[in-house]
Structures
1.
Amino acid sequence: MTLLDALLRCVAVLAVFLVFPLVIGQTEHKVMAHMQGRLGPMYAGGFHGWAQLVADGVKFAQKEDVVPAEADRRVFQLAPAVALLPYLVVLIAIPVGPHGLVGQAVDAGLFFVLAVMGVGVLGSLMAGWASANKFSLLGGIRTAAQLMSYELPMLLAAASVAMAAGTLSLSGIVDAFHWWWVPWQVVGGFVFFTAGLAELQRPPFDMPVADSEIIFGAYTEYTGLRFALFLLSEYAGILVLCALTTVLFLGGWHGPFSDGLGWLWTLLKTFALAFVVIWLRVTYPRLREDQLMRFAWTVLIPLSLAQLALTGVVKVVIS
């Protein structure tokens, strides 16, 4: 790889990281406005409320950056970056098209992206502990419990598709994909996507932020641009989760009729899944803490183990 090639890849990944999460955030405003009859986001800036995202950015930039007097200042200020930057690193390893269309190919790409995604949750833990606020600390503890509960089914579901493909390379998994995998791996895809939503603390798995119970969880004391970075990390997490689900379970750049669109297939599938994420937020109420834990240990983990066993049986039979 030449220096120019490496530089172009870095610029492309950075552009995706800076633009696509904002597109998802703008889409969420519009989808929720239509589904819930919210008129505000439909008017800002004239045609279809195109300036809503700009207005939100200006609002966050104008707010005062407040650090609580009793907070651990360094950890408090570092937490938003810890929550956001892992998703930038993950995007580097996710292939979006054939012929090496990826920031940096990693042989054990699946292991790499799952390991790095787990680091992002530390941002919430750091924010909750450093804020010197009992509600924030409670939100951080809930984040830790939720992470431990949903990490296992997510890893087992990913292991199932890796076993089917016979490789940990993300590009290799897409190359090995066959359309008859869709009904075969549908349970694993459901488990992976659902556990990913829980790790991102998206509704209906948003108990760690529970604004009606613990104000806003670990982020209660954050204002201005630091709070905006946490929101950006949430939308970046949605982008990464949907892209990974596309690569692992939906064939990546392989289309249902033709592969001619290449990376456009990956993009279309990713944003279709992002629409589902937003749809779920509008449709389902927040789970109780006991319901959230029970769903992980009594539903998702047994399903992921069953999918793993089925994958092993199928591999033995077809080999």
Note: The chain has one domain: 66-318.
2.
Amino acid sequence: MTPELLPLPLAAGIASGFILWLTSWLEFRQVKSGSESHWTERAREQFPVLQSARTNLWSVPTVVALVLAWSFPTPNWMDVVNWFAGLAGAMVGTRPLDRWRGYHLPFRRWCRHILGGWLPGLAGWFVLVAGVVLMPAKFGPLVLAVFLGALALHVALALGAGIWVSERLGWVHPATPEVIETVRRLASANGQRPPRVLQVESTAANAMAVAGGSYVLLLGPLTSLLTPAELETVLAHELSHSREGWRVVLGRVIGSLWLFPWILVRPLSASVGLAAPVLLAFGTMGVLKFNRWLNLRFEHRADAAALESQESAGIYARALLKLHEFNLSPATLEKKSSTHPDLYDRMIAAGVDPGFPRPKPAAALGWGGRLFSILVGPLAIWTVINWLENGGF
């Protein structure tokens, strides 16, 4: 990188970090409920702020990188560098939000949280952005090669390749022997091969299974927050996901590709003009709807497996309640955006009275997240116009 280009990624990182910090701060100031409020009300107000920050992790660097691309003619690879720098800045910009919400980690643990918790999930974005920028402008053998190469990387990441690398680098580590033995026992009872169980540094307490059944990840203080009986039901839930058939795994991989077709936006725009981003947007919405349907269907099945594994009634419901209260996850969400059943409904289905009236559903996204998500669309169309009129940046 030449010295005259060095200020651009620095500017992208600083601008993205400042924008994300500022929008999070302004949104969090609008939270009215205090510590004396019931946790469901605090969760309802804070959840949109958190979702805005998560969405802005990719939308803000994208906006900043596009603005820099228009303002300073540079090689295409420089756009990728600027986006990555913007992402790094945006990650730093989220750190104050953790403190405001009460989920603060010391700096070294926060770095492990970023490296082991976020980067494997964001690696697919790296592949997508690099592919969009480096994709040739006209269809041909090189377009096919870039598309297939990026697709192979994305599928590998969806099946746990990023987690595998993180473990080799020491960013995540195996769970305690007691937890591993519990997973082995539950897996043996179901006649399945036990997945590898890893502990991931996080500000949230949660568990998740990686598509294909290779890993179960335990996030944050999950094991210390729950009793052994409660933890066992949560693990039974995740093991239900781990033994999903190949058709479901294929469906999950397809669902993870909701933005991947945008890798073809440049050659597709050269062929059909401004219809390209419109067609890709409709495709994105269709895949998102499919992904939501698939998730909801198999979350219900996993909940049933958890209820079947519990030693006595109410254990799994108490585990869910503890996790939602600790994480300040809403008890009800807007149905159009939720990929999991509401906590309130899950507790009723488990035969347990939640102990509080049904709360108002939390908004899916705050105004900051909506603002930059909306900006990406017109900026993408403007980018296509520049490609068509000027042959690219």
Note: The chain is about 70% helix and 5% strand.
3.
Amino acid sequence: MMGMTLSELLLKANIAPTELQGDAAINSIVMDSRKALAGSLFVCMPGMTRESESFIPDAVDAGATAALVHSPAGLVSARSYGLAAALVSPKGNSFPDFVWRLCDAFFDHPTRSMKVVGVTGTNGKTTTAWLVRDMLNALGEKSAYLGTLGFYLPDQTIELGNTTPFAVELYNYLAMARASGVTALAMEVSSHALAEQRADGVEFDTAVFSNLTQDHLDFHGTMEAYEAAKWRLFRELPKQTQKAFSAVINIDDACGERWHQRLGEIGTPVHLYSRMGKEGAWAFESKSLKVSFDSITGKWLNVGSAPIGKVDAKLGGSYNVENLLSAMTAMVALGYEPKDVVKAASSVHPVPGRFEAVQNHKGIGVIVDYAHTPDALEKLLDAVRPLTKGKVITVFGCGGDRDRTKRPKMARAASERSDLVIVTSDNPRTEDPKKILRDILPGLIPKTDSLAIVDREEAIREAIKRAKTGDVVVIAGKGHEDYQIIGRTKHHMDDRELARTALENKK
């Protein structure tokens, strides 16, 4: 929208600021002063670590011509530097609501012209969204993925700071996707993003709900608030689109069952999936389902009807059955023929850091996975146990500056399902890693064979040292991440690399 003035943009977005002073042409919207260019509108987001309005001089030096501020002092500062400025109160949802409407108008509704699948839930978001992208590609779409693993366009990959970026960044990415010719997008939508209205205005064709278990209570406070944030994707965001919206729900989950009823009451079309094979849901025929470390095969059907066809997916682990079902059901919700969905599901690729096997010639299974909640760890280890001839050795930790109440629950989940548990560090951030371990250890079942090793590299080395032929070492918590956050600094550390080195040095 080159050359549009701030006042023209406000008119197009049909929004009115608390106060508007001056006017200027804007060519881009940024929330990071370091990314400002000539003609940028600098959005001063409230609630950041450092007062965002203090970066106005930096944005001006980079060429910004306008600012969106959240305080009278910010308005004065912006005007003193010659910027056109709009003031919006930070109270309630006023500011984030203003921002997404502004961005959606500036970029001319970037998701209106593409198929968009949103995925939310405590566990399974990344894998499901990744599989959705793979299937969309197989079905002839030029597809993109946005989430925990980054922003994957057909011709480039961009690292993200958040699973779901803030609205200003998100809309810049969405516009980039459209400019790249993307016709379909699979997007993870986190509870943080939904609570903070980061994804508002995105025109979803369908949204997938995987499950709800304890996580992020440090942010939401209660499970009720956590659920309410996710519910926005199905209740509030569909009101912001011109598209016909439908929902994909895991009917095996207690929250999913509640939502199915609520969605029916408000008239939202719902497509169900069920690992348990519940009536009316998409599922795999139980007698034909076979799962290994690197594959899932089985006949797919809508329960109560004849099988559509046999899926042969190069994806391992029993908990990935649910993820595969959720992605396939999303394809049905988008209107693809079930027989074509079967073919597409057979072409998916493994997801980095999700039940990822580290190949070796030692006869030892090594699985690296992102599982970092009690429920995810339980499902991971429950998937590993039936495939293991020997012992299960689990290495895990808990992140610093995050929900402390889940730490002993993680320990219990691991000790109930492992022959040896090694508790270690996992992004301690600003907390003392030894203190984190002290929070974890009381959750271990008495007499559990366990070790506490603060250094993660040493912990992985010890796990593989103790493993014998037929054993499986599960390294949980970080998955695809190639860093360890100590303090506020990221240090290079990749569980897969550490495991390979330990295997090479194993005698």
Note: The domain at 356-505 is CATH 3.90.190.20 (Protein-Tyrosine Phosphatase; Chain A).
